[in-house]
Amino acid sequence: MLERLNEAMEHIEGRLDQRIEAAELARIAMTSEYHFRRMFSALAGMPLSEYIRRRRLTLAGAEVLSGERTLLEVAVGCGYTSGEAFARAFRAMHGVGPGEARRTGAALRSQPRMSFRLVIEGSSSMRYRIVEKEEFRVVGKKARVPLVHEGVNPAIAEFVRGIDQETMRRVASLSDQEPEGIVAVSDNLDESRAEGTELDYYHAVVTGAAVPEGLDALVVPAGTWAVFGNSGPFPQALQYVWRDVFTQWFPSNPYRSRPGPEILRARLSQDGKEAEAELWIPVERTKA
């Protein structure tokens, strides 16, 4: 998988002056566009579109300083339809406009080329199992919240605090299958998974029961799930398991992610400092 990802990276480098389609990159990597975008974000630490933008503006910086082409020609070569749009993007990355950079020879920022490799440390192993589930429902209370990669998500914390105990008792009583009890469900995420983009968050249970009045529900089709166990400091251990799944497990196993909600079942220690977690990710087998 990593070898094919690096072939896709070479494709990007050879076409920075052209339109780059994520679907074509996914084809080179021999995976779905959905999985390719998620894999890239997890490995690179930024969305695919942001990396391509930064690489283009890095090369543009060198051309601006060289003075061999007009600023408009540099802008068009980077895919911008106007000098103004190019100037805004250039300033956002480099901290200075292209005209000023050319006049003063300003120091500019650079986005290095990326390549991926798998580092095998052998110090730990991931606990996982594969589960086939029939159609089920996620039932509870729902909110639209921003994505936070590290630390406590304030929007989720405030939302959960606002759910009254009687409602939570009603929700908890509906749990009738794995993962059991109250779970945190993330759905309808932006494909970039960039910090601050929004997602649907459910404080809910997994059930086959009918949906009571006043509760929100999400119908989840039958499918395959990879279930990962993890424990450690809260909330870091819960957030790191997502990173480890995409940077370690997927490149080493014949599965890829598929569209669907991600379900986290977490149990906190009495002092709230430690957590034991089980993360459910919708997956499908890759072709041999």
Please provide a written account of the structure.
The model is unreliable at 120-125 (pLDDT under 50). Helix 2 (22-28) crosses helix 3. Strands 1, 2, 3, 4, 5, 6, 7, 8 and 9 form a nine-stranded antiparallel β-sheet that branches. The chain is built from ten helices and nine strands. It has helices at residues 2-14, 22-28, 33-44, 48-66, 71-77, 83-94, 98-104, 154-161, 165-172, 236-252, and strands at residues 127-133, 136-146, 183-187, 198-207, 216-220, 223-233, 255-257, 262-268, 274-285. The chain is an alpha+beta fold and 288 residues long. The termini are close together.
Task: Write the topology of this structure.
Blueprint: H1 2-14, H2 22-28, H3 33-44, H4 48-66, H5 71-77, H6 83-94, H7 98-104, E1 127-133, E2 136-146, H8 154-161, H9 165-172, E3 183-187, E4 198-207, E5 216-220, E6 223-233, H10 236-252, E7 255-257, E8 262-268, E9 274-285
Antiparallel strand pairs: 1-6, 2-4, 2-5, 3-4, 3-8, 6-9, 7-9, 8-9
Helix pairs in contact: 1-2, 2-3, 3-10, 4-6, 4-7, 5-6
Which short descriptors sum up this protein?
alpha+beta, 9-stranded antiparallel beta sheet, about 25% strand
Shape estimate: elongated
Rounded to the nearest angstrom, the distance between the terminal CA atoms is 12 Å
- What integer is the average pLDDT? 87
> Would you tell me the structural class of the helices and strands?
alpha+beta
Whole-angstrom Rg: 22 Å
Note the main sheet: 9 strands, antiparallel
What fraction of the residues are assigned to beta strands by DSSP?
15-25%
How many strand segments? 9
Q: Show unreliable segments.
A: 120-125
Helix content: 25-40%
Instruction: State the order of secondary-structure elements, H for helix, E for strand.
Output: HHHHHHHEEHHEEEEHEEE
- Count of discrete alpha- or pi-helical segments spanning 4 or more residues: 10
